[in-house]
Amino acid sequence: MSSSIYTSDSPNSPPLRVNSKALVCKWDECPETFMILADLVSHLHEDHVGRKKANYTCEWASCPRKGATQTSRFALITHLRSHTGEKPYDCKVPAKHRYIRRENELLADEYQVIKKKLKRLRTEKDILLDAVMQQSMKSALMKNKRVFPTDVGNLCEDCI
Fold it and tell me: Which CATH number fits the domain that encloses residue 53?
């Protein structure tokens, strides 16, 4: 997925584009450059972050958290997105059409959509149940001409 890349060199900035073409890795004097963001991200994950290490620390040039230990590999990868500008999660909410960095933001958006749909379905279910109850009460009246006092509240004025 593509994402926008900034060209500023502020302390927490994404990698610089050289001649508007290549992305420069700014990890502790790494000389690598890349044409595609996904290649830079892969390089960071494989060559710098690694796997099964005792400590995961950010070594991005001019990072305010440089050298600080992250709680896990996943935490470091998530932190590196602030440097690379990577936003791997595509939001499915039609009104937003945006990319986001962390999966929990995506899940929160999807949760809100599901919550609204569930509320609408519950309302529709209640309406249908009321209609079924009304119909069954009418049928009971027609068959037995007998209605219990607790059921009277569910009847329309024509049935009482």
Answer: 3.30.160.60
Q: Is residue 19 part of a domain?
A: yes
Highest mean pLDDT among 72-76, 97-101, 130-134: 72-76
C-alpha 93/C-alpha 17 separation (Å) is 31
Asked if 54 and 42 count as a contact pair (C-beta separation under 8 A), the reply is no
Q: What is the token pair recorded at 89?
A: 């999660």
40 closest CA partner among 48, 52, 51, 28:
48
Q: Are 101 and 92 in contact (CB under 8 A)?
A: no
Domain residues for the domain of 73 are 1-86
pTM, to two decimals: 0.47
List, for residues 29-80, the tens digit of each pLDDT value: 888 888 888 888 989 988 888 888 888 988 888 888 888 888 888 889 988 8
In-domain check, residue 136: no
Residue 76 falls inside a structural domain: yes
